[in-house]
Amino acid sequence: MMIRTVVVDDENPARNELCFLLEQLDDVDVVGQASNGLDAMEIIRKQQPDLVLLDIQMPGRTGFEVTRELLIREVDAQIVFVTAYDQYAIEAFEVNAVDYLLKPVEARRLQQSIERVKRRLTSKRDTAQNRVDDQQLERVLQQVSQRRTQRERIALKVGERFQLVPSDDIMYASLVDDAITVVAGCLTGTSNFRTLDELQSNLDAEIFWRVHRSHLVNINKVKEIVPWFSRNYILKMKDAKATEIPVSRAQTKRLREYLSL
């Protein structure tokens, strides 16, 4: 893990010394420097660092003022204060600083501070990943729940009786004379749904396609796809009559994409 770091200190020798120490560490990349609080805000905005090493007493804005503005703007950067004064330690941790280093900074103490930053960054990234995983799981559960609400069996009126047929057995449904005729296996009957839209909403939309305003087909029950005029297609179904279903111009594109035609 490379820690993108910005160093802010109004004293040039102190800033150079701190950058030198950071360069000795394999997992730190100094992406910017600033000599005052105003420049620090601009560099932090541009670079979006993981870590800001921040002096406290500076012209323009103090280190605490910079930190509070970062908190207000919800900038996700870790803060380590580097100062010659020890009386600000309590206030530093009140603004959620990772560490508080006294000048002159010792290499060993800086290394410890960087390790703290790494642990906090790792924890935040793990939390963010867990949040993403939770969101993905929630979407999957919603999809599963939606599929469970789809009917596994559909009632068909065959003669004077209603028969329940597995939805996967349905080959196609057609709107004929204001009635929905459904062919499922060796059965042909009428659905009690008023429209093809209502019927489709109770079926798996990934399998049952509205290929025409008057026809709904089970894409897994298509026996043959026959090219037709004007680059359209006719679907031959797997029923005993090898029923031919036209594909509307609007649905032809989807069919071509599905078949990689």
Keywords for this structure?
261 residues; alpha/beta; Rossmann fold; OB fold (Dihydrolipoamide Acetyltransferase, E2P); 15 strands; 38% helix
Structure, described:
The chain has 261 residues and is an alpha/beta fold. The protein has two domains: 122 residues, 3-Layer(aba) Sandwich (Rossmann fold); 107 residues, OB fold (Dihydrolipoamide Acetyltransferase, E2P) (Beta Barrel), CATH 2.40.50.1020. The protein is 38% helix and 31% strand. The chain has seven helices and 15 strands. The strands form three sheets. A seven-stranded antiparallel sheet has the order 7-6-10-9-8-12-11. Strands 2-1-3-4-5 form a five-stranded parallel sheet, sandwiched between helices. Helix 2 packs parallel to helix 3. The two termini are 45 Å apart.
SS element count, helices: 7
Give me the strand/helix succession: EHEHEHEHEHEEEEEHEEEEEH
Question: How many domain units?
Answer: 2
What proportion of the residues is helical, as a percent range?
25-40%
Helix- and strand-based class?
Answer: alpha/beta
| CATH homologous superfamily title of the largest domain | Response regulator
Described by strand count, sense and barrel closure, the largest sheet is:
7 strands, antiparallel
Taken as a percent bin, the fraction of beta residues is 25-35%
- The spatial strand order of the largest sheet comes to 7-6-10-9-8-12-11
Instruction: Identify the overall geometry.
Output: rod-shaped
Look up the CATH topology of the largest domain. Rossmann fold
Radius of gyration: 34 Å
Distance between the termini: 45 Å
Which residues form runs of ≥5 with pLDDT under 50? none
Total count of strands: 15
CATH architecture of the largest domain: 3-Layer(aba) Sandwich
CATH class of the largest domain: Alpha Beta
